[in-house]
Amino acid sequence: MANPLIKITDIKRNFVLGDEIVYVLKGIDLEINKGEYVALMGPSGSGKSTLMNLLGCLDTPTSGTYILNGKDVSKMKDDELAEIRNKEIGFVFQTFNLLPRTTALDNVALPMIYAGYSKSERTARAEEVLTQVNLADRMDHHPNQLSGGQRQRVAVARALVNKPSIILADEPTGNLDSKTSVEIMNLFNEIHANGNTVILVTHEEEIAEYAHRIIRLRDGLIESDTRK
């Protein structure tokens, strides 16, 4: 069996609030293989957002180990984590997080600037992924000229642009109506079918149903882990 893409062992995350320590993650063990399509679910306070931040290298654990693609990221410093995030992880957020004064094309090309690609390489790749998400005719539009669904497609294209190991989507349909949500989730199905590993954080059952594996958290622990 090949090594898992993600291997988390006894991950704990505590936060100090004034005089008290809040124990958010209480010892999580988790393996995710390349090409899986996983939904992380759980009520408010279950620890799913904290776990997502750890998976996305936006935060480091209090204790435990996190091996991502063969690298131990649990002990890395901020600048090393930033590099891992840019290379290994494509983020899609509920609020799109696009630069308002920048075209769709330039928004998508942005992660490639940090990765050190030339302008011609950036433009070619950004055009390629915008075409992939059916926005070939909207490349020169600014976010305020696009619908919510189109903005999320731009965000998805930006997540794909550096060919990351993982697409990490946090409530990606949270700001969209039902019809547009279905379109965006169909897009994630296509991305997964192309061989990408997709991790989806959601509180909506119907969105989680798109995934092939549902991990439910409660009170900082994994309550259930079901594969379809």
Automatic annotation (TrEMBL):
Domain ABC transporter residues, every copy: 6-228
Keywords associated with the record: ATP-binding, Nucleotide-binding, Transport
GO molecular function annotation: ATP binding; ATP hydrolysis activity; transmembrane transporter activity
GO cellular component: membrane protein complex; plasma membrane
Matching PROSITE patterns: ABC_TRANSPORTER_1, ABC_TRANSPORTER_2
Membership in a protein family: Belongs to the ABC transporter superfamily. Macrolide exporter (TC 3.A.1.122) family.
Protein's name according to its UniProt entry: ABC transporter ATP-binding protein
Organism this protein belongs to: Flavobacterium muglaense
